[in-house]
Specification:
By secondary structure, the chain is of the alpha+beta class. The chain is built from five helices and eight strands, in the order αααββββαββββα. The relative contact order is 0.16.
Length: 153
């Protein structure tokens, strides 16, 4: 489960003088779920909802996991973490992305749920080819954080 590596990342961020985002409130979770249903036609997967209840978005060393809504980054109030619905609406302007729910990205990859296959995938941003298939949202998130965390060490 990603919680252990998320705790390690929180420790690393604190040692660097940064902080994790606060957990999403119940109201924020209800609002983003309603907005996702209205604008994307899909609810948030349970694993992603659990993540948001722990930390409402993540921005670390080029890795971004979307928040419930565009949110100022703790300690960098002039910078925002993209909101889940807003990012997905923008992505869907490029038609091939309409088959995905995207949870975040780094410089090269997008972390998605393929709505046609039900698979959690890491896809290349440029070619949209599948780089890796995860068994769950939790595994997808763990891979994303671990890769970035290991590169930063």
């Amino acid at each position: 489960m990603y919680l252990k590596i998320l705790d390690e990342l929180a420790d690393k961020m604190r040692s660097d003088g940064d902080a994790m985002q606060p957990p999403a409130t119940e109201q924020q979770l209800l609002q983003v779920r309603k907005k996702a249903q209205e604008k994307l036609g899909h609810d948030l997967p349970e694993g992603y909802r659990r993540f948001l209840a722990e930390v409402n978005g993540l921005n670390y060393d080029g890795l971004v996991i979307y928040a419930t809504e565009p949110s100022p980054i703790i300690g960098y109030e002039h910078e925002l973490i993209e909101g889940f619905v807003e990012a997905n609406v923008d992505d869907r302007e490029f038609e091939p992305m309409s088959r995905y729910l995207a949870f975040g990205q780094n410089e090269f990859d997008v972390f998605v749920l393929d709505l046609k296959t039900g698979e959690y995938q890491v896809i290349n941003q440029l070619r949209l080819n599948v780089c890796r298939v995860a068994g769950s949202f939790d595994q997808l998130l763990e891979w994303a954080i671990a890769e970035r965390f290991e590169q930063a060490e």
